[in-house]
Write a structure and sequence with these properties.
6-stranded mixed sheet, globular, Rossmann fold, 7 helices, 26% helix, 8-stranded mixed sheet, 16 strands, alpha/beta
């Protein structure tokens, strides 16, 4: 039962497109699928923008022609006849970033929390970036409601922790997350700098990994005085990491 919760995914190719980055490669490797792995993308957090899926198929065709890529769109209706069967047949399910609040609402309308939990228990690797990281946790910080970061709860809670992505690149993330954990509004949890991912097996952290040097993961816990205690975790640099 593996989850790779990250602040990383694609890497730019310099032409306005994207390449399959080391973090997605790592999710595929964790599946142990061997030849012709099945990898499904969910871009619910972007409202299933067609361009997001086009980028996915283009990147996969260029970088991983051995992969059998697919996607599950829910707007305006599911694009596959049997979403449950489709997701349970995957080796990896990767969730893109965007509005985690909208993602969670739409997923619940279509029964995806239960389906994704069953896929996880069946051995499908669950992964994602930003909203696709936060969704597996209890809650965290989000800009889903506007430019000012706010608390979000109601995550799938497959991981019984809080979570915050983009810890080093969005200035408001760190102070808000510390306050929410210190005040007890969020349970202890994990934050990731851009480029960092957290690999969990069950609910246990296996390791932090990174697709670029100089980045960290962070463990946050509530101290006895009601403040947040922050501990840095050095990630392992993945093959293919870039500067």
């Amino acid at each position: 039962m593996n989850i790779l919760a990250t602040s990383a995914g694609y890497r730019p190719d310099g032409r306005g497109g994207a390449r399959i980055g080391p973090m997605i490669e790592h999710a595929i490797a964790l599946s142990g699928a061997g030849e012709r792995p099945r990898v499904c993308l969910l871009e619910t957090a972007l409202g299933d923008q067609p361009g997001a899926y086009a980028r996915w198929y283009e990147a996969m065709a260029r970088d991983r022609p051995d992969v059998r890529p697919s996607h599950l769109a829910l707007f305006p209706m599911p694009n596959v006849e049997d979403p449950r069967g489709h997701l349970l047949a995957q080796d990896v399910i990767w969730v893109g970033g965007g509005s985690v609040a909208n993602l969670l609402a739409v997923w619940r309308a279509h029964g995806l929390p239960e389906i994704l939990a069953d896929a996880w228990r069946a051995g499908v690797v669950l992964g994602g970036v930003s909203a696709g990281s936060l969704c597996w946790h209890v809650g965290g910080t989000t800009d889903s409601f506007g430019p000012d970061l706010r608390l979000v709860t109601g995550g799938l809670a497959l991981l019984p922790f809080s979570n915050t992505p983009h810890y080093d690149s969005e200035p408001g993330r760190r102070p808000l997350y510390q306050k929410l954990v210190g005040d007890g509004l969020l349970p202890a949890g994990w934050a990731t700098d851009d480029g960092v991912g957290l690999h969990f097996r069950g609910s246990e952290l296996v390791e932090a990994v990174a697709d670029r040097p100089g980045k960290k993961a962070w463990r946050l816990e509530r101290g006895d005085d009601g403040s947040a205690v922050e501990t840095a975790v050095e990630p392992r640099l993945l093959p293919g990491a870039h500067g």
